[in-house]
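Q: Structure tokens for this one, please.
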Amino acid sequence: MGKKASTHSRQDQRDFARYGTNSYVMNKRDMSSPYVANYYAAKQQRQQYVVAQKNRPIRGYDQYDSIESGRNVGKAKTRPKELRAKRGAIVIIMLILMVAYVAVAALSFFNVLPQYTSIFVKNPGVVIAAPAEEEETEEEAAEAAGEEATGEEETTAEEETTEEESTEEAISLTNRDIVMGFVKSFVEMPAEESHFYNDAMSIVKEAGIVNKIAYYALPIAYVLALLIALVQLVRLLIAAFTPKRRKLFILGSILLFVLNIVVIATGYIWSAGTNFAYITNYIPFIAKELIPIQLGIGGLISLGISLLSLIFSFFAYRSKKKVG
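A: Here is the predicted structure, written as tokens:
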């Protein structure tokens, strides 16, 4: 026994001289300890975990790793939430915009607050001046016919009537006037009064090609825009309460905006034809003089809502690269 003890003491002295005072040498007995085995197993699992986290396409990995490794002591040790595809606040804003669009259309159809919901405004008695060439040909025809006296009497009578009519108040043209005027051109509806039918659809056969296309495109584009708005509204209601990614939001917003542009453009052709010199007078807030048909506040609201919906649709959902 004494010999074995002396050999162990000499071995310990050699180890102490070799590794220093602050070193600890693990012998076979220490390696066989269950605590050491658990330590090495945990260390190996930690290395595997770090490799797995680096391979995962999740943002905020550095913060997640520092929390798991014990760094940032004293800070809140909460794991960052994974990014969701849907941006809930933007979806809610788009939902409110679509509700407002449909509400303006419904109020306009039932003639509620027509001064704020009408698509167009008609100015009775206002006529765009004809070009100088046309006036000269009319005068030559009058002189050739020898009816100068009667022509002067008619012109004076027309001036008096236009002066009387120009004092009339502007008429708000709602979407009901446009849609029912279009339907009236195909179905007899004597009880339904429509300025769009009287001024446009009743003379559509005699109109030029551009005006004819505009008269048909105006009500069709408006109805299509309203249908797209209703579809967008239903899809936004579903998207607001479900986390699943919804497609074709951007396409629907683009179509809605383009159709509103078509409605406004065809309304101008109805008013001034292809003469774009009066384009500034078509917008009510910057108009310097009146033209037969001007854009209404309801039309401006619909265009603004469709533009905002188009902008927000690009940010409603995060890209798949960021979400993973």
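A few notes: Residues 88-123+170-323 form one domain. The chain has a mean pLDDT of 79.
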